[in-house]
Amino acid sequence: AVTSGSVSSTTQELWTVAGVPSPPATPFYCLVEPVSGYDFDPEGIYVSGVGSYSGASAIWTVLRGVSYSTVKNHVINSVITPMTRTTMFNTISNNCLVYSPLRNGILIDNGISDCEWISCIVAGGDSSAAQYTVNGIFNSGGNVRFIDCHPYFCSNNGFYGWNYSNPYSIIGGEYETCGSAGIQIRQGLNVYISGGTSIFANTTYDIVTSFTTGLTIHDVWMSSACYEHLVLQNNTQTDVHDCYFGGSNTGPMVAVSNTSLNANSETLIHNNILQSSGSSYGTAISISDAAGVIVHDNIVEEGIVESGGADYNYIYNNTLTNST
């Protein structure tokens, strides 16, 4: 337990820790469970370095990682538990609030699997604030689920996913008011976004995905006044259906592209509503340099366009209404 504590700078704390005379080899994680003072929230801290220590009640100078928010003074009787970061599984985080973190609100590395985050809120700060949130949720974990979560006011993305080999799911929730995208998926495998997820008020994209295999998006509401609502870039085996796209856009509402000419993207886009009222761009769905795209039974207010080397695509039974 901490017997005394003080904040020495914006990135350091000085702890006197009873019962743990020497810390583990850095870097390591600590779980801090405060019991008094003005800091009441348990906190996982990434410790990048420790200064001098000696005796049964060691004095640690703790240098903290950049992916956490402002340094807190962990007062007397706070419990410090060193943890390993190698693996964590079968853990549920429920009804959590992360307020204005410095970089990533919830950071999940690739040692995390089979866990759930339920009704977690990340209230970010903008570039003019003292604390500046980059991504609300940064996920590299596998077989994890995010249920009814709500990140907002992030400079980049509400959710950023990056896992090469394990699936994960986003079910419900709101991803809004972010500087780049509500959700960005890069280099994923078997990613699932569904369950009435609402994505709005983002600056550039609602959902942007790239180099992802096995992507399913359905029953999602995308309504930002942005450049493109949904980007499917260099993906394979994608299924987008029963989604609503609304709000003004300055680019295509759905953009499918590949960097390799006539690459078979194995993409389905069907049974969606694309309502482009107020749009300054005349294309609902754009297919560029991609093959194997099947587009059917959508209701669109603007056109469906193939460009570049797009070929071997099947477009049928779509309804064009109120074209401008």
How is the largest sheet built, in terms of strand order? 8-12-15-18-21-24-27-30-33-36
* Percent strand: over 45%
Tally of contiguous helical segments? 0
Query: Which of globular, elongated, flat, extended, rod-shaped describes the shape?
Result: elongated
Largest sheet: 10 strands, parallel
> How much is the radius of gyration in Å?
23 Å
Mean pLDDT: 79
Low-confidence stretches: 1-11, 64-86
Per DSSP E runs of 2 or more residues, the count of β-strands stands at 37
Our measurement of the CA-to-CA distance between the termini, rounded to an integer number of angstroms, reads 68 Å
Structural class: mainly beta
- Helical content class: under 10%
Task: Summarize the structure in words.
The structure is a single chain. 0% of the residues lie in helices and 53% in strands. With 324 residues, the chain is mainly beta. The strands form 5 sheets. A 10-stranded parallel β-sheet has the order 8-12-15-18-21-24-27-30-33-36, with no helix packed on it. A hairpin with a 6-residue loop joins β4 (43-50) and β5.
